[in-house]
């Protein structure tokens, strides 16, 4: 009789007559402790959306038959649905996956870990499932998401790439893979992914927007602009494309285009409130600081925390709220993916600089330059944020000067002849490094062009012994700025991730970087008898003509009044990829000189390291 009633209840449950099934089940459990009836009653409540009541009965059934995997899975799912995922994780782990039952138990454990946001447990569950079922794209996707939630972007990308390979038609997988690669700063791979996604049938404008984001991150701004424009050709109402194009305009010193962009987006059906940070950036550049602050507060910072906090810092600085500006800059830096890892890499980098400085010795008999014309470049160097971009913009106004803007030519040469071992570097290796450097120059400047080549790369100040070995007659321009201003400015900027720039993620690291870099510079010029001329930033912005005339004499060039029109030079030079992009296109301002004094309280911990350098460089106390 009991079996007949159970079959009747099961039939009612299967055909959706839940009230009949529930009536039979409740009558049965009132007179028996049968796990089958408890399990059925739990399923009925869950089907009705009453997961908490369902969990009660399913747990009773599972407790009565602990070896019944189907009962355990149903109970676990009801716990997850009723917000009690942690209770599932508190249960013993399932056995290794050797059966369908074990697989089901691990799957529900993974679902519980995801619901509880226990990313380590989620990783363990989905990794076990992916190992047992390597063609299960969902397992790889969930594993990738668990790794991404832990900030383990490279591993996440590997898992998500596998998921995409197994199911290339699922667009969410492509998005998540691209997001992991972006967070891992693997933008060249993102560009490849964008092409693959397009061939796999990506939504019309999404792949183009993805390309634009990574091209901008790689500072290939012309290409990024084209990518966003292509996206808008495909989907004029794509707010992400409008937003990205606006950021490119701002980043390349063309913020005056933003009001027209906002208007054009509105004509395409995209209101200003959908353009993210662009309206706030536009208001800031128009001088409407209060409006910019209000607009910024309407934008979720999670969308792009680096840009959000950078703008917050600039707004607060402009408003005179210096403590708030400093705190926002600190938050901007902490938003860097793998912040702790980059801080460690910056620390290790500075240690190497100090080791090089301590071990420098003069190279006997430096080789003669291989440049048959004796036209060694002029190297414009200086600690970052010391005015090198402003200075090279002035120099671009001279018709007999060609400027190489931050090309890693010496970085490549150092791979052949490291600075640390320059005293014993074989002549053959130096010759290869020279050849490579000159070939790199020739790709950017016609060697038949009369005049000087100025290689502007600030941190070439750390490679003086190598440069002197390659070009014994090379001249240097050293850009100097008050140490406190240079360090503060670097800390309050956002840089592309690299070992040197990682030091700017903390104010302590930035100050220590200054000390290490200046120590290496001073030791280098003592060991390598170079010719150099110092340009003091504070003098350049106060009296550019008086400051630049001695420099032209040092370079052996006649004075030319066109040097002084730095704004025209800046606007004609194309995209400026350095952090000074929005400053060199403006009239000279003295406001950046002595700016650090407004932040003296925030800089107090590092002043004992920086002020002795200021005194040594001639700045008054």
Shape: elongated
What fold name goes in the CATH topology slot of the domain at 349-616?
Rossmann fold
Task: Provide the low-confidence segments as ranges.
Answer: none
Oligomer: single chain
The total of helices stands at 32
Q: Structural class from helices and strands?
A: mainly alpha
Query: What is the strand content?
Result: under 5%
CATH first level of the domain at 349-616: which class?
A: Alpha Beta
Distance between the termini: 100 Å
Instruction: State the total count of DSSP E strands.
Output: 5
Major pleated sheet: 5 strands, parallel
What is the mean predicted local confidence, pLDDT?
Answer: 90
Helix content: 55-70%
* CATH superfamily annotation of the domain at 349-616: P-loop containing nucleotide triphosphate hydrolases
Spatial order of strands in the largest sheet: 2-3-1-4-5
Give me the Rg, rounded: 32 Å
CATH architecture of the domain at 349-616: 3-Layer(aba) Sandwich
